[in-house]
User: Fold this.
Amino acid sequence: MRIRLTSVFVDDQAKALRFYTEILGFAVKHDVPMGGEHRWLTVTSADEPDGTELLLEPAGHPAVKPYRDALVQDGIPLAQFAVDDVHAEYERLRALGVRFTQEPLEMGPVTTAVLDDTCGNLIQIATLPG
Amino acid sequence: MADDELFKALGDPTRRLILDELVEKSGQTLFEICSRLSMKHRLGISRQGVSQHLAVLEAAGLVESRREGRYKFHDLNTAPLRRITERWPAPGGSEAKENTP
Assistant:
């Protein structure tokens, strides 16, 4: 069993595409019209075009909002992305206007920070040992 | 009565640890406080448990929570601790200490 694809719900796919590519630096993998306003929209790491895809999924279901609102209020991230250097990434993203709910925090060998993806989610970035 | 809440809040090692972490950085989400307790201090405590500790600290006025947009942050407020040093002043008095560079 392998993880090929995972997803985050996004308020607006066009806005999410901009944030995940232009700000976070992911690359578009698939962008397929699904009929109506929705697209099958996935991104991958720019360094790993054949790596795990992240589906930017429309957040239309009524259960999504209360679920995400409760998590965001408590600062709980819905996905974690690995970065080489959390501190450097924090500075880079801050300069681009990204809002962080947790500044870089060293906890033993792991360093993490939490940012708002502007599409309804908090995202954790982490530098893991090894 | 306010004193009872203050001393009750301080009378627990986990709550004192939460205050320690908020001294290091004020304005933390529940998630950050939980992360610090579990990752830095290896405390096996549930999110609900941390929430309950925060409620006790808030009742004592030592922690204040603030909504900012969709997020909720917890700030440290050490003002209630002044009641302790006012009631039982430190030897030499606080003024002498404050004047020392």
Q: What stands out?
A: The first strand of chain B starts at residue 63 and ends at 68. Residues 47-59 of chain B form the longest helix (13 residues).
